[in-house]
Amino acid sequence: MFIHRNIANLVCSTDLNVMSVINYAVRHLHVKHIIVCGHYGCGGVKAAMTPKDMGLLNPWLRNIRDVYRLHEAELDGVDGDAKYDKLVEFNVLEQARNIIKTAAVQQSYAKYGYPIVHGWVFGFSDGLLKDLEIDFEGQLKAIQKIYNLTTDALEGS
Ligand SMILES: [Zn+2]
To answer: Is pTM beyond 0.85 here?
Structure first.
């Protein structure tokens, strides 16, 4: 296993660290599966749910606040722990989408049929791992409508 960890399991396209890990794992190690594994009770997600100046953490938490904004109507309809758990799950799904948006994943999948991207959430309280059952093919297709990086950049120009 090749593992990368950060606060609230974020995959940001401008984060050279996580992007290097994904590129190395996909293009050189030829990994068959990529798993974004979040966890319930995540402190990073909790902090993002609190409208407060967190100093240097602001730009990092902003990514999670953006996930909240994407699902605002649904999240505003639930309270307390249910809302918190739901945002943890939405965040994992969004970060999985961010991985699918990369050229490395799209090009490798077009050529070899892997990697497949998965979204999991671990529960420290019950020890269970929840598979969010991402429809990888469906997500890839939806994402490639706008973010398709499998065609040559100069094609047709
Ligand atoms: Zn966490």
So the answer is: yes
